[in-house]
Each structure stands twice: as C-alpha cells, then as structure tokens.
Amino acid sequence: IFFRGKDKQRFYFALEAIIDRGLGLAVIGDNEFVLDHYYRMLLAKLRQNPDFDVEILLPANTENLLERFNGLVEEMTIDEARHPAGDKVPANLLIINDAKLVEMSQWTLLERLLSDFPGINARVILFIDRTYNSSYEDALSVFGRKLHRWVSETPSSEETRLLLEAADEHGFSLEARDLMKKAGIAISDQEAYLTV
C-alpha cells in the first residue's frame, strides 16, 4: 500500500537509482510510521535481488561503524579494497533505518570510508525523520551526488480520500484504514468512502 499516488512512482525511481545507477538512497519524511512502512517495503524488494548483500546498520557509536567496515575490508586485500569494485563483487547495502541516532562525525567517517574503499562496493540507504533531525541536510551534503533523494510527505486529506476509495474498490479497505490509524492520519472525514 502506498500512502500517496506519487509515492509509488518515487518508490520505483528509488529502486532504479539503487539497482541501475549504483547510488545510495536517502528517504526523508515527517511521519515515522510512513517512513518505517516504506523501509519495510524497500528492504523486502532489495533482499529479493541476488546482486545485493543487505545489512541493517545500527551505528550506535563510531567503534561499531569501524568494526563493520573492518569486517568488509578483511574479506579482500587492501589493494582490492582501495580500487573500484569488479563486476562480480556484490553491492553491500548498508541500511540505516533510524538516522537520527547518527552523529555528524559518524556521517563524515562513513562517507570517508566509502570513498577510501570503493572495492567493498558499499552504499548507504538512509531513512530520515526530519521532525527529529533538523540538521539532516548537513549530513546528506557529506555524500554529495552519491545519494538519490526521495522526500515522502504525509498524505493530504484529498490524497487520503483517494487512497481509501482505491482501497475500497480493490478489497483492502481494512488494511488501508489500519495503516492510516497507525500513521496518525485522520480518516474520520473519509469514512463515507469506505464500504465495510
């Protein structure tokens, strides 16, 4: 289920950026539940792709981040790690679902490690709740053009109405209403569009 019609297109643009263009991804939103919903959808799609090693990165501190990178580098020689990855090296997708926990110094370190060791073929996928992290632009600027951006907005009342109409028409009204409720999106004005 996509909360907004535009989100379906943006979801597939994001996948294309990761799969075909070799970019990382930053999904930026203002609703934690909506971000988590898209995180789960994206994670499921990426795990189906045999060209990717998908890992949830929990950078509680700089030592953990360094330890993870050391693990990736240890799988090859330093010379291999410092040169661009070959075609047969699977991409390591490092997913950070709760980017507000990452300190600015860690963003800089993460980008430096990615740049210094291109042979490990690692990219980051970030989910950023901008309501908790007003300085997220500073963090993203560290990565420059290496990240595709997807800004996910909470649906407007009109977008909510359209979603619920479509959900009713296609037989997933209860699921859509449940998602809206969990995301804190008011549906009381929309209930006339649902047949329960």
What does this structure look like?
The chain has 196 residues and is α/β, with parallel strands linked by helices. It is 47% helix and 16% strand. It is built from eight helices and five strands; from the N terminus they run αβαβααβαβαβαα. It has a five-stranded parallel β-sheet, with helices on one face. Helix 5 (104-116) links the parallel strand 3 and strand 4 (122-129). Helix 7 (157-170) packs antiparallel against helix 8.
Summarize the structure.
The protein has helices at about 5-20, 30-45, 60-75, 80, 105-115, 135-140, 155-170, 175-180, and strands spanning about 25-30, 50-55, 90-95, 120-130, 145-150. It is α/β, with parallel strands linked by helices.
Helix percent reads 40-55%
Evaluate the radius of gyration: 19 Å
Give me the secondary-structure category: alpha/beta
How many E strands? 5
Count of helices?
Answer: 8
Strand order of the largest sheet: 2-3-4-1-5
Shape: elongated
Residue fraction in strands: 15-25%
Given as residue ranges, the uncertain stretches (5+ residues, pLDDT < 50) are 189-196
Average of the residue pLDDT scores: 85
H and E string: HEHEHHEHEHEHH
Distance between the termini: 18 Å
How can the largest sheet be summarized?
5 strands, parallel
